[in-house]
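I am sending you the entry underneath: sequence plus fold tokens. Let me know what the token row says about the fold:
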Amino acid sequence: MSEWQLTETFRSTSGDVRWGSLGQPGREPVVLLHGTPFSSYVWRAVARALSRHHQVFVWDMPGYGASEMAAGQDVSLAAQGRVFTQLLAHWGLAEPLVVAHDFGGAVCLRAHLLHGARYRALALVDPVALAPWGSPFFRLVGEHSDVFEQLPPVLHRALVREYVSSASSPGLHPAVLDRLVEPWLGDPGQAAFYRQIAQADQLHTDEVQARYGEINIPTLVCWGQDDTWIPAAKGRELAAGIPGAQLEPIAGAGHLVQEDAPAELTAALMTFLHQPR
């Protein structure tokens, strides 16, 4: 775990947020957003590569990773969109480059369309953005989170490991899988895992989906072609709904593109982020 540490803390309206930055201060800023049930750890390789030319900001959303997990905490998409807007103000970033994966895609889209957050360019990687979303397992857990929360720890651990594993097409290295699962174990991790699923409501993307045509910044949509969580057809649909959006299919990658094809994803992001604006 020592190879990825978030050393800074921001007190948000949804609890303490752990964050960090890589690269030389003053360089063009890039902000990375993770998805669920992950953390900023999934961005480690991409963040280090981008930090050669940018100051890269990473953070764990409230209720995730190293950030605060607490009973009664609001970790919904609505809350995360507000927190992200607060963080941008805290960092003093008026118009950064933004790269977002999964749930983080919905977070940055809400921040942009509902809270006025401004970006210089936006890259979305297998985002949660279009209805319908949520697998049968995800919906089952959400509807019965109070029951799942009471699972014996050993069964909970097995469930989370299997769930996280399914996000990768070629399979995760055992050490990486351990690192992704670890925040969700024990107290308060087990309760936090089911809390974030219980609060994942499609209404939060329904609020903004009809407004994607208003996005007038350079946009890239990357999609793992072997994604079994959100099919690649959603990537084509999303790119078609955002004016001028580019679509970048990533072969051999599942939903967790950062782990399955980090070199290919980084190359696509570097090409996009360095295009003349």
Remarks:
- The chain has twelve helices and eight strands.
- The chain has a mean pLDDT of 96.
